[in-house]
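Journal club side-thread
Mid-discussion, someone asked how the predicted structure for our own chain would compare to the paper's figures. Pasting it here so we can look after the session.
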Amino acid sequence: MKNAEEFPGLAEAVGDCSLVVGTTTLRNRERHQPIYRLEEGARRIRKALASGRVALLFGSEKVGLSNDDLSHCHWLMHIPTREVHSSMNLGQAVAVCLYELIREGRAKAVAAKPNAASARELERLTEILVETLRDSGYLGKSASDVTTAKVRRLVRRLKLDGTDAELLLGMLRQMQWKIRSE
């Protein structure tokens, strides 16, 4: 606990992570990202840990993760439970997920994509992309949070590495400059 940090928001908290995974039951909610069972999710997380930091998000016991929280996730993971008890309390869910992550021991992980773009880089890319879409007239000046969340999910599905994210960011800045100078 002595190394615990406090952040103003989720984007800042996961900024240095190359993979952000949300946990959910997705009851009565529309799904926008792939969802994997715990076993498959843990395998994918172990693989990603070989090349970068991973954030595993848990929501409150009452309502889970918000739609905005979910939009920061590359994909989602769920713990299979009985129909009668569709979710676990927070402590149990964290314990089960962590157990599954270490269950395979120290299996060698191979990086799927070296130097994956961090969540901070992807969030900056999302911000610039939304600004550019507004400046170009594609989005209205008051585009909703729902629209921003859709763009955020799109950017994460691209699975960019850091170099590609930087290149795309440069392209968008040039487009913004051109649009704003006309």
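Post-session note: Residues 46 and 107 are 9 Å apart (CA to CA).
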